[in-house]
Amino acid sequence: MRTFLLMAAVAVLPCSLMAQPRTTSLQPGETIPDSMLRTDAGDVIALRKLVSEKPAVLIFYRGGWCPYCTRHLKDLAGIEKDLLAAGYQLLAISPDQPSKLREKPDIEKLNYTLVSDSSMDAAKSFGVAFEVPADLVSKYKGQYGIDLEAASGQTHHMLPHPAVFIVDAKGVVRFAYANEDYKVRLEPEKILEAARATR
Q: Which of 30, 91, 103, 113 is deepest in the core (most CB within 10 A)?
C-alpha cells in the first residue's frame, strides 16, 4: 500500500519526520476548507470556526467500528493534556453519524471532541476520501457485521484514509500525514512532537 506523509516546512521539525513522499491531500501552507460537521448531539459546527478559537490537531479515522481506529483514539487520550499545554485542541473526525460517535465503550468516555463528517465533505475537501469497492462493502457487512451505511447514515460507501493535520488558528495546515494502509497510524508521541515543533 502506498504511504504518504506531508510536513510543514519548519526548520525545527526533526529529520526523522521529513523527506517523505507527497500526496494529493492538503499540504502544509494550504488553508483548510470551511467544512460543516456535527457533534454527537447533532449540532452543526463549522470547522474553520472551531480552529479559529484554538489551533487544532485533526484526526481523520474510519469509524468506531474499526478496532485500529478505536485503539488509536484511546492512545491519543494519553497526549491530550500535553497537546492542550502546547496550545492545541484535539478533534477526531469520522463518517459515523452523530448517534454512532460514542456508541462504542472504548471511546464513549474520551474527553476530547469527536465530530461527524457523515457526508464525507470534509474528508473529500482534505483529499483523504476514497470509495470502498462494492464487493468489500458486502464482505464487511456479511462476513464481519460492519454496515457502512448504518454507521454513516449515508449510501456513499466512502471512508477516509487515516490522517493527521495540524492546523493553526488561521486555518493553515502546518503538518499533514496520511496513510492508505488502515492498519498504520502515526504514533501519538510523533504527533505531539510535530505539534510542539509547529508552534
A: 91
* Per-residue pLDDT reduced to its tens digit, 35-64: 999 999 999 999 999 999 999 999 999 999
| Ramachandran sector of residue 169 (left: φ over 0; alpha: ψ -120 to 50; beta: rest) | alpha
Mean pLDDT of 25-30: 94
- Read off the pLDDT band of 15 (50, 70, 90): very low
Q: Which three cell numbers stand for residue 106?
A: 472504548
Residue spans of the domains in the chain: they are: 3-197
Is residue 139's pLDDT more than 90? yes
The DSSP code sequence of the chain is --EEEEE---TTS-GGG-S----SS--TTPBPP--EEE-TT--EEEHHHHHHHS-EEEEE---TT-HHHHHHHHHHGGGHHHHHHTT-EEEEEES--GGGTT-STTTTT-SSEEEE-TT-HHHHHHT-EEEPPHHHHHHHHHHH---HHHHHSSSS-EEEPPEEEEE-TTSBEEEEEEES-TT----HHHHHHHHHHT-
* Average pLDDT over the chain, rounded to an integer: 88
